[in-house]
Amino acid sequence: MLGAGILGSCTALELADRGERVCLFERNADPISEASLYNEGKIHLGFVYAADPTFRTAERMIWGAVRFMDVLARWIPSRTLSVLSTRPFDYVVHRETMVPIPDIEAHFRRVGMAIDQLIPSKTEAVALDPSRPTWRRLSGAELAQRYDPGVILAAYETCELAIDTLGLAEPIRAAVRSHPNIDLITHARVVTVKDRSGGCFEVHFESEGRSQAESFAGVVNALWTNRPHLDRKYGLPPEKPCYIRHKLGVNLNMDPVPSEIPCFTVSLGPFGDAVVYPSGRVYLSWYPVCMVGTNRTGGETDWDVVLGQVDQEQIQRETVEAMTRICPAIGTCGLGRSTRTSVNGGSIFAPGQSDIDDRQSELHERLDYGFHGRGTFLSVDTSKFTLGPAMAIKAADHLTALLGRRT
Ligand SMILES: Cc1cc2nc3c(=O)[nH]c(=O)nc-3n(C[C@H](O)[C@H](O)[C@H](O)COP(=O)(O)OP(=O)(O)OC[C@H]3O[C@@H](n4cnc5c(N)ncnc54)[C@H](O)[C@@H]3O)c2cc1C
User: Fold this and answer.
1) Does residue 2 sit within a domain?
2) Residues enclosing ligand 1, CB less than 6 A?
């Protein structure tokens, strides 16, 4: 297993539970240390994909969200998962929205119908707030209480949640480290994979300044943005051109939890999000400031280099300012009430060639079903954190079948 993000860690745990011996390679000191750690943790129900006319992206997100908690509950107590969940999200429509309000509402109606159809009993195990209607438009007075009506044209409460990824990382790491069938090899940068006789593979990696290699009957490439690079080195051409974006988030840690700041996503276009976790951490992201680079070549990304090249103070200041223009409570609580601040993020892999402000961009669709490979070499595109646990079970199923094992 190459890469110990949400996909690699959950696939390793699933295969190990099925009795396979799994070797999990990770270049950092811990599992869950890159995109799966520093993303905002929204468990998408498809509301944000109003620019995808096929609706298949929303359906796919619901498919992942339905399975998200259930799969993780195989290794983490449900109680731990539920205390990490946020309040539900508002979707607020910016005056420069790419999709007009009637079309957004038509999309929300479809999301509502799909949720009712795909999640008939909204039990606790499902990643949504069952006490909320699927979506509801706020009155003008409600909107003005939370947002600036000069910038925000309409606002909707939804039942969509996020999970605190920093809190989730710990129990996943513990499950991986304690599983008797998993050999976790950290500080190990995978360099290439080569075919060996009998359908086996040799994984070449660098660890402690030394080049090493080990042989395996099957390989799962779960390296996320470095996945296409490794595939190419192995001799597996990419199925489609890819577009990698480097995106940051600003974290303000507040005590007590700022109940006056809602969790919200600004629709629809290159705008932003605010997430308030139960720990008091507030995550803010403003796309024009926080999207700090792209990589269209599919070459290897070193996240530390990306982070080292940005002015973190400026990003923090400009993001807080931009988000305060939308939700004044952010400025009121702001930096003054935060005990600690940090800026971090990760890379986002998606098929396509243009950015989110292009309505035709493939970023508005996550339809790629995510698996390709050769023999028992399987390369998996997680697509979203929301889909990580469900994709892990599929990856384990695929590999088990390819290896000729019974599930
Ligand atoms: C800022 C941001 C916000 C996001 N918000 C959301 C959201 O709210 N909801 C959502 O559903 N999705 C979100 N995403 C997308 C989500 O983070 C990813 O889809 C998901 O985390 C990918 O999981 P993964 O396991 O494939 O990747 P990762 O977590 O990146 O795991 C890949 C692992 O491979 C390791 N690795 C890489 N190269 C090598 C190598 N050569 N050798 C050894 N190890 C290597 C990395 O260190 C890493 O641990 C967001 C992404 C970002 C960056």
Assistant:
1) yes
2) 3-8, 25-28, 33-36, 39-42, 44, 189-190, 222-224, 226, 247, 249, 345-346, 348, 382, 384-386, 388
CA distance 289 to 316: 9
Task: Quote helix, strand, coil % in the chain, to nearest 5.
Answer: 35, 30, 35
Instruction: Output the DSSP codes for 329-350.
Output: HHHHHTGGGEEEEEEEEEEEEE
pLDDT digits (tens, 9 = 90+) for 2-22: 999 999 999 999 999 999 999
What would the pLDDT profile of 273-295 be if each residue is shown by its tens digit? 999 999 999 999 999 999 999 88
Whole-number pLDDT of residue 117: 86
Indicate if the pLDDT at residue 123 is higher than 70: no
Decide if 249 is inside a domain: yes
Reported confidence tier of residue 302, pLDDT bands at 50, 70, 90: confident
E-assigned strands of 87-186? Answer: 89-94, 135-137, 152-158, 161-162, 182-185
Tokens 């309505």 belong to: 359
One domain for residues 343 and 256: yes
Instruction: List, in sequence order, the alpha helices (H) in 200-267.
Output: 227-234
Among the listed ranges 92-96, 180-184, 229-233, 298-302, which one has the minimum average pLDDT value?
298-302
In Å, what is the CA distance from 170 to each residue of 37, 178, 399? 10, 12, 27
Tell me whether residue 69 is in a domain: no
Q: Which stretch of 42-46, 51-55, 176-180, 364-368 has the lowest confidence by average pLDDT?
A: 364-368
235: containing domain: 1-41+164-239+368-407
Task: Locate the ligand 1 atom nearest the alpha carbon of residue 6 and give its number.
Answer: 25
Buried b (16+ CB within 10 A) or exposed e, 378-403: bbbbbbbbbbbbbbbbbbbebbbebe
Q: Using alpha carbons, list the distances in angstroms from residue 182 to 16, 22, 174.
A: 6, 5, 12
H or E segment at 351?
A: strand 338-351
Pocket test for ligand 1, best of 89, 223, 263, 391 (most atoms within 8 A of CB): 223
